[in-house]
Amino acid sequence: MCITVRLLRILPLVLLISRSPARTTASNSIVKRSYIASSSNFAATSASCNSKIKMPEKRTAPAISSLEDFERKLPGYLNENTTLALLLDYDGTLAAIADSPKNTYMTVAMEKLLNQLAIHPKIFLAMISGRALNDVQSRVGIPGITYAGNHGLEIESGNGTRHDYPLPAKLQQHYAPMVVELVENVQKNGAWVEDKTVSLTYHYRDVPADLSGALKQQAIRIIESHGYLANQAHDAIEAKPPVNWHKGEAALLILKDKFGPNWADEIKVIFAGDDNTDEDAMRSLQGVSKSFRVSADPEIQTYADFRLTSQNVVEDLLRWIRKTYKD
């Protein structure tokens, strides 16, 4: 019998290490947790059910540009009696893109709304960012919520439990040499390397236009020569480990850990992000959430249900939620 699309989305296989951050010595106890259904089983099941399962597809999504648009296009989606899981990216979503990640901040209004939602008993808040875990934690600064850094490779729940994706030792050995080679060869003319310990970002926003193309291609060659994936971001290249783990898998793990295997039947879910890496979460959550891609491009292809026409509209998204989930 064919497994439903919902089950296929929420039962990924991953081996994660769960540990308390308070224990950092070599004698720490390590708890291995495995999740169901291997990728090969998934592929086999998908092939046998090909005629019955409609896989997620990218398309141009309807636009939302105001608070009124949320109320008009999503009537009845939110319910004050139903728990809401609110999963959010940081850069380009909660905070406008800046010339440097160090200069990225939320507005006072955005910060106030986020803090109000974070303490509501019917709202579960999680941040899923490409930044390093401790970096996004310090940027958002809300205690007791779940944070995922490095595109979900590092996750820390509100009670301090850690989930770190176990990267192959051989791959980890290539990380430091990759950073050194990038710094020595392409960290120039305004470009710089953001070392996030598990992954890195090569930023070339400030490089003169006549030089950026060549530097970008050289950076990609270096990243790939060390066995890492080079993914395009906003005026940057993300170097990520070549593992089947991303923001989508992190979102599913977070939801299952918090609400159990039947979470999709019991809660409402909202996800918002602005980058190509956020599309992994939008794809994984398609059909069991409402997702929003922040983009000014009316023709952008996305897995999201809706397109937010600017980063400012994210504030309207939070206001819409706040109108339903009052104190």
TrEMBL record:
GO biological process terms, alphabetically, are: trehalose biosynthetic process
For this protein, the record's Gene3D superfamilies field holds: HAD superfamily/HAD-like (3.40.50.1000), Trehalose-6-phosphate phosphatase related protein, domain 2 (3.30.70.1020)
Could you tell me which Pfam families the record lists for this protein? Answer: Trehalose_PPase (PF02358)
The membrane spanning regions, by residue number, are none
Q: Which InterPro entries match?
A: HAD-like_sf (IPR036412), HAD-SF_hydro_IIB (IPR006379), HAD_sf (IPR023214), OTSB-like (IPR044651), Trehalose_PPase (IPR003337)
According to UniProt, the reaction catalysed is: alpha,alpha-trehalose 6-phosphate + H2O = alpha,alpha-trehalose + phosphate
Q: What is its EC number?
A: 3.1.3.12
| Pathway note | Glycan biosynthesis; trehalose biosynthesis
Broad EC category = hydrolase
- The signal peptide here is 1-26
Is Protein biosynthesis one of the keywords UniProt gives this record? no
Q: Which UniProt keywords apply?
A: Hydrolase, Signal
Cofactor requirement: a divalent metal cation
This entry's Gene Ontology molecular function terms read:
trehalose-phosphatase activity
- Please give the function described in this protein's UniProt entry: Removes the phosphate from trehalose 6-phosphate to produce free trehalose.
Q: What does the sequence similarity comment in the record state about its family?
A: Belongs to the trehalose phosphatase family.
Query: What is this protein's record name?
Result: Trehalose 6-phosphate phosphatase
Question: What gene is this protein a product of?
Answer: OTSB
